[in-house]
UniProtKB/TrEMBL annotation:
Keywords: ATP-binding, Cell shape, Cell wall biogenesis/degradation, Cytoplasm, Ligase, Magnesium, Manganese, Metal-binding, Nucleotide-binding, Peptidoglycan synthesis. It comes from Marilutibacter aestuarii. PANTHER family: D-ALANINE--D-ALANINE LIGASE (PTHR23132), D-ALANINE--D-ALANINE LIGASE B (PTHR23132:SF23). The gene is ddl. Mg(2+) 1 binds at D265, E278. Its EC number is 6.3.2.4. It comes from the Bacteria. This is D-alanine--D-alanine ligase.
Length: 323
């Protein structure tokens, strides 16, 4: 794929003013967000940016009221106190404070895996068959209607929180126990048999794909954030296959109303080909995270990546910039 990243637009860190690196919060992904946020903060400071840490949305509002924030690098993850569900974006739009990542529509839509898949289907983009499960719905009946194996996951969580891999009906017991105490909708999705990929999007450019090879049977929370034996091959494909997965990821990102930066997860089914799984609008930036690995493949180191993401808050063409 010939499309490449343009050079950075600015070299003076003073153009950013005071930058709040928003991390932590109260979602289920708090610890991952804190890890990402510390890394981003150190990277921006290493480039001379006047950046400071803010833990959670209420503290950010206080800092804005005090006149201490010119723009926000959002590295909150998740919803209900996270920063990926459109609530934060609407708040910052109303206050006229620029921020990184997609705006209200893209953030709210992609936080909901079910509605994202419905949009993709309407656009003719490939995604696995699924069933929407409201609280109290029969998981066994749903699994039988789809056919095993399936995954069961919350529609509005990330980082593999509450994900269950169902190979036989007996495996549904743990998922049913989780569902009994979970108030939101669940997504039951046909399991894709094939390789797992992710494609980072940065400023309208799809970066090289990454093929994920976990040591275990699947890419769960442990493989993502704890294990050191997960392999990441970048680029994940060659030739036209690599071009095709990048085109698909960018199309999926745009169809979901997203701009700026993010990450699109894709699997390659042995029979059906590429299948879209989900979008992350505030991707992890930990030592195990994938966007920095893809950026490095095109010569962009971690600090430069953070700079480029922050640049998107400057100018009318910036993804997620509303100020």
């Amino acid at each position: 794929m010939s499309q490449s990243l343009p050079p950075p637009r600015f070299d003076d860190p003073a153009v950013f003013g005071r930058v709040a690196v928003l991390m932590g919060g109260t979602s289920a992904e708090r610890e991952v967000s804190l890890d990402s946020g510390r890394n981003v903060l150190d990277a921006l400071r290493s480039r001379g940016v006047d950046a400071f840490a803010v833990d959670g949305i209420p503290a950010l509002v206080d800092a804005i009221r005090d006149g201490r924030v010119d723009r926000v690098f959002n590295i909150l993850h998740g919803n209900r106190g996270g920063g990926e569900d459109g609530v934060l974006q609407g708040l910052l739009d109303a206050l006229g404070v620029p921020y990184t990542g997609p705006g209200v529509l893209g953030s709210a839509l992609t936080m909901d895996k079910i509605r994202t898949k419905q949009v993709w289907m309407a656009e003719g983009l490939p995604t696995p068959r699924f069933v929407r499960l409201a609280p109290g719905d029969d998981l066994v009946a749903a699994a039988r209607s789809l056919g095993l194996p399936v995954f069961v996951k919350p529609s509005n969580e990330g980082s593999s929180v509450g994900v269950f891999r169902i190979l036989e009906e007996a495996d549904l017991r743990a998922a049913a126990e989780f569902a009994a105490g979970y108030r939101g909708e669940l997504l039951m999705e046909q399991m894709v048999r094939g390789k797992e990929f992710t494609v980072a999007i940065l400023g309208g450019v799809a970066l090289p794909s990454i093929r994920i090879e976990p040591a275990g049977e699947w890419y769960d929370y442990h493989a993502k954030y704890v294990a050191d034996d997960t392999q990441y091959i970048c680029p994940g494909l060659d030739g036209e296959d690599e071009s095709a997965i990048r085109r698909l990821a960018l199309a999926a990102f745009v169809a979901a109303g997203c701009s700026g930066w993010g990450r699109v997860d894709v699997m390659r089914d042995e029979a059906l080909g590429f299948q879209l799984i989900e979008i992350n609008t505030a991707p992890g930036m930990t030592s195990h995270s994938l966007v920095p690995k893809a950026a490095a493949q095109v010569g962009v180191d971690y600090a430069s990546l953070c700079w480029r993401v922050l640049e998107q808050t400057l100018g009318d063409d910036a993804g997620g910039a509303r100020g």
